[in-house]
Amino acid sequence: MSLPKEDAAVLAARWTEGVLLKRDVFSTVERGRFKSERGEIDAVLRRLDEVPWWSFVLARHLFAREKHALALAKGLNVGPELLWTGRRALVRGFVDGVALHLAKPHGNVAYFRSAKDALRRLRHAGICHNDLAKEQNWLVGRDGRAYVTDFQLAACFGRRGRLYRILAYEDLRHLLKHKRSYAPEALTPRERKILAKKSFAASLWLATGKKVYRAITRGLFNFTDREGGGRRLVNDAPVLVDLIRKNPAVRDTAIVAFADRRSGVGLYAFVEAEEAALEDRLRNDLAAANGPKPPEHIQVVHALPRDASGKPRTEILQLVAMNQLDLIEPMMKSDQDRAFLKDILDQRKNLRDRFNFEADLPSS
Known about the structure:
By secondary structure, the protein is an alpha+beta fold. 40% of the residues lie in helices and 20% in strands.
């Protein structure tokens, strides 16, 4: 399925392709640059030309919902700005920030205060997001503020009736669940009461509709995890990790997912070892094991970045795999961290989508 001629003409003249962020049966999402009235700016393109015929009707419905919600949210400064829309493509501004599950704002009370303010602005505009249970739809901006993205399930209301109030309540309850995960000590007594009380609609959904939703998304559409790695990250990656660790030269490994233009989802293995030549041996071993498909990329590193507890910082490794290097900088705490990561960046493997999103980091 191709884009309409008018959409294709605008994108050919104004869009510069960058890195693929996501591709599924509902759309292709990529980051690049867009020529706006203010000049060329960072932006995100959603397009429907690679959507299969059997999901196109639903994909077009979700596309229309996002377009309407973004238009209504213009000027609220709570999410991406709608820059251009066509029949089967739209361009929205890029929010300079990382997803909640990558940023992990532990103890950041100011962030959750900002998030509550963002919901308040959406409510005043009559917008219910309806997909805020997913941490990847909450962004931690470089400015420290909260932003929301992915309005495909958003509902817009002209009047605040019962359905609006239920959906707005659920948006707030989902935000408070994230606050409980990252800043539980900051929950107020009223917020704890909200967390303890689902709306009747939410309880009904959990008992009925969500089971159907999971059956469809996990079975038919192959969605299984928040990072977008699908079955490969959930099912294949743990098996591959065990196989890689069997090699005596390997100290540790971490596997992350990234959007791939050819296969949809790719796996990227970062292997902590001393031998740079180990990569070819590992690839041969994985192929001979007759297990899951080996990772598209295997990179041997001198050491994996780790948090205070010693666990690999997969949130940083995922951004490396996705070539969104400029988003890593705010997560660096010192020049030592930057120097440590520079070796990993200089040897990274996923260069097919390499773009100029790395100006803030040390160059190779």
